[in-house]
Recover the amino acids of this structure.
């Protein structure tokens, strides 16, 4: 907020600690909604759109604070594309995984009080990602890996395009959420996967050991697909044009002037310059007009105007 004649107040940057907390909170919300929907609904479409709508809500609510986007695959893609720093990416992934595990813990508590649930291990076995005999369609490992890589790559391409600085749309959260829902609709029957390594990790703590043994695929494949899509994206977008936003540790030199600041500078250039007594005397006698002085290096017309006005 600014008053007449004053410059706009600088935007308060969020600290890295705030970013980490928001990533954990968003991950908790998305994973809780997805697992709870899967627990109470047998419809693949319902589960997929539960994840998608939860992503829309999280992006609208928290996307302006942190751009890790609550999924380790998205965070890795942002780091490869140059949007966030690598250290922040690692911290985001840890926070997202903790948030997902906490969400699974809430689901665990819910399952213990539901009558005729069939047992905790059995319930979480239906929520865990797997291949071969543990795939809903009995898809072998290679088939699940291909689907995970391709789906993650396409999804990350949508995320990077929708959130690019030159994309002025206000519907990015809806586009990302819809893309996530469609991608999960494909991935669920194949590997019972949400394309979220943190969500896949959260479930293995509450089911049989086979889920932990197959977890590596649901980290490796989505992360590889995400990194591949981000690397291709960066090859088309020069690094200098990337929208780097890493909160409090973003360098001030990378911040471009806002349109309001540009208009203010142009307005100052059009104002009449004060005329000194020497200039007035020289104007009446052109022969006495002094030679124009060279402009001081590093000074602008706006600085000259304010310095002259103060004399």
């Amino acid at each position: 907020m600014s008053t007449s004649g004053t410059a706009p107040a600088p935007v308060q940057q969020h600290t890295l600690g705030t970013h980490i907390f928001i990533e954990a909170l968003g991950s908790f919300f998305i994973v809780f909604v997805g697992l709870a929907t899967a627990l109470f609904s047998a419809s693949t479409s319902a589960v997929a759109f539960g994840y998608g709508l939860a992503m829309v809500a999280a992006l609208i609510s928290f996307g302006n604070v942190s751009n890790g986007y609550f999924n380790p695959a998205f965070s890795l893609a942002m780091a490869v594309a140059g949007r966030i720093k690598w250290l922040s990416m690692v911290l985001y992934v840890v926070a997202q995984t903790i948030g997902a595990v906490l969400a699974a813990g809430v689901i665990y508590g819910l399952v213990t009080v539901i009558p005729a649930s069939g047992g905790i291990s059995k319930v979480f076995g239906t929520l865990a990602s797997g291949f071969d005999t543990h795939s809903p369609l009995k898809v072998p490992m290679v088939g699940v890996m291909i689907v995970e890589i391709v789906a993650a790559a396409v999804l990350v391409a949508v995320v990077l395009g929708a959130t690019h600085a030159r994309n002025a749309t206000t519907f990015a959260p809806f586009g990302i959420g819809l893309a996530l829902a469609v991608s999960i609709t494909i991935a669920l029957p194949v590997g019972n996967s949400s394309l979220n390594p943190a969500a896949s990790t959260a479930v293995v703590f509450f089911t049989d050991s086979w889920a932990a043994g197959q977890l590596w695929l649901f980290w490796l494949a989505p992360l590889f697909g995400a990194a591949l899509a981000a690397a291709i994206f960066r090859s088309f977008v020069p690094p200098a044009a990337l929208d780097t936003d890493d909160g409090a540790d973003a360098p001030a030199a990378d911040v471009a002037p806002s349109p309001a600041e540009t208009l203010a500078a142009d307005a100052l250039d059009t104002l009449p310059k004060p005329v000194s007594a020497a200039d007035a005397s020289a104007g009446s006698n052109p022969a006495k007009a002094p030679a124009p002085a060279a402009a001081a290096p590093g000074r602008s017309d706006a600085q000259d105007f304010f310095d002259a006005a103060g004399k």
User: Anything to note?
Assistant: Confidence is low (pLDDT under 50) at residues 1-6, 247-264, 293-298. The CA atoms of residues 102 and 174 lie 26 Å apart. The radius of gyration is 28 Å.
